Amino acid sequence: MASIIFSGTGRYVLKPMMMVSNNSGHKVDGFSGKKQGNRDGAVVANVATTPRDHLQVSTIDQKQQVVDWTNHVAWTSIPHERWEGELDVQGQIPLWLNGTYIRNGPGLWNVGNYNFRHLFDGYATLVKLHFSNGKLIAGHRQIESDAYTAAKKNKKICYREFSEVPKPDNFLAYIGEIATLFSGASLTDNANTGVVKLGDGRVVCLTETQKGSIVIDPETLDTIGKFEYSDNLGGLIHSAHPIVTDEEFITLLPDLINPGYLVVRMDPGSNERRVIGRVDCRGKPSPGWVHSFPVTEHYVIVPEMPLRYCAQNLLKAEPTPLYKFQWHPDSRGFVHVMCRASGQIVASVEVPLFVTFHFINAYEEKDEDGRVTAVIADCCEHNADTTILEKLRLQNLRSFTGEDVLPDARVGRFIIPLDGSPHGKLEAALEPDEHGRGMDMCSINPANLGKKYRYAYACGAQRPCNFPNTLTKIDLEDKKAKNWYDKDAVPSEPFFVARPGATEEDDGVVISIISEKNGGAYALLLDGSTFEEIARAKFPYGVPYGLHGCWIQKLPGETSLKVLLLQSCPR
Ligand SMILES: CC(=O)/C=C/C=C(C)/C=C/C1=C(C)CCCC1(C)C
Ligand SMILES: CC(/C=C/C=O)=C\C=C\C=O
Ligand SMILES: [Fe+2]
């Protein structure tokens, strides 16, 4: 398959399903807002055919065999606002794989002539892979958050992003009140981190600001509107990674005023979160950053990381080394265990210092009488080293020269006793050299959420590197890892989809999107069990790196939402 795409100056005519127009019918090239001619009405991806600078420079230097990463497609803004088309597939997509994988991530890192600083600042780009009877329709779409829409209109940043603060006059021009620059109104709603399917079918994109919860149409990727929480729980931020199943949505709301966390739960069909309980922080001066957290069958695990939110840094205009956070080793690290049913804290232990974005899973360990004796919680742990945040600055990601600069990481396993002991343990769940001492962006078989499990999928490292560059299957029982690697390519989070009816934990496929050194990108399917490639399909343009995804299973006999709507509203 693999058509040679960016080779000439001619236009590359794509298959008829694609769309490159914005709502006004004009093709949009990033933020330039340039109107592109569409005289013949042909469905043409102008962006895919215009040779882009990075496609010319991103070549292998024959002498050094080192790729110029300045314009690596992983860290280059997506060149157009939306696209959809069928991809040629090399290999075999399993016929049982029917549904849509949607991945979210910060895919646009410039506005006007201004270039963003940090990976997490970029405006949200959704990428979809729709699998149906062995065929693959792909697409992408920018999320129409207020932050993105305002930036596009004003050609300036108008809201506070992860590391960016708008100039007061940008913000004034848009919102109109200086008093609000330091209030919740100035915070971004750029939902660029994850995407979840709620039990009621709504698909919601998320980031760490509560206002950045945005409902999308999983078929078209269109922005439907804000997900408004109808409770009065308040607060401005939440964990970027709620626990979402068909039955519930659980998340943590950090309390920055009276340091602690509210543990809250929402039912399918509802927009109202109800409080399960509250954890008071044991360390000072503020809650630890809580990007994610795990649950077990009976407990919610609340990590209190010594990397804490920092009120002063929240207000600063210029980025500080740790952005909105500060490292407080003296105030130590803790893990709290809350009973889901009663909201009572059943354990609150001090643990060794740790730094993590992502918990992998957690489960309960029982004695022979079935009594829970401990909770095991696994995470991608950065050896208590905060420099990983700095490594994710775009300048650093784009300046790889072959030196091994990625800090070491491991599968950190917390062992939290439930017998009243004051301390918990943190150790590597397997020898980190198994996965090149790189470890982040993980998934598991969702059937094992909160239960004892054997396999995790994540990005590891083939060194030297400056960013995790392998897909890794971790066997926590045999303490072994299998690694997939494509030189100079950047793979995104390996996402496990179970085969319907499977009984083995690793019976399924692993989906990832690979940003290639030559400016291209491809969707990759690995067998969940053997971890061998089973199919790949090249995009007709470069797709940048992205973060987290979700799977929307097509049920047998299911009719699409659009068809149902058309049937219920006959003209
Ligand atoms: C993409 C990712 O993993 C994290 C994104 C985090 C964001 C956008 C955090 C934003 C924040 C603000 C804009 C101000 C308040 C603090 C904080 C939640 C860090
Ligand atoms: C890309 C990333 C965190 C993303 C948050 O959602 C972490 C990468 C860590 C590298 O080792
Ligand atoms: Fe994340």
Automatic annotation (TrEMBL):
Keyword annotations: Dioxygenase, Iron, Metal-binding, Oxidoreductase
Cofactor binding description: Binds 1 Fe(2+) ion per subunit.
Amino-acid positions noted as binding Fe cation in the UniProt annotation, renumbered to this chain: 241, 291, 358, 548
A GO molecular-function annotation: metal ion binding
UniProt key word Metal-binding: yes
Cofactor needs: Fe(2+)
One cellular component (GO) term of this entry: chloroplast
BP GO annotations: carotene catabolic process
Protein family: Belongs to the carotenoid oxygenase family.
Record-given protein name: Uncharacterized protein
Species for this entry: Tripterygium wilfordii
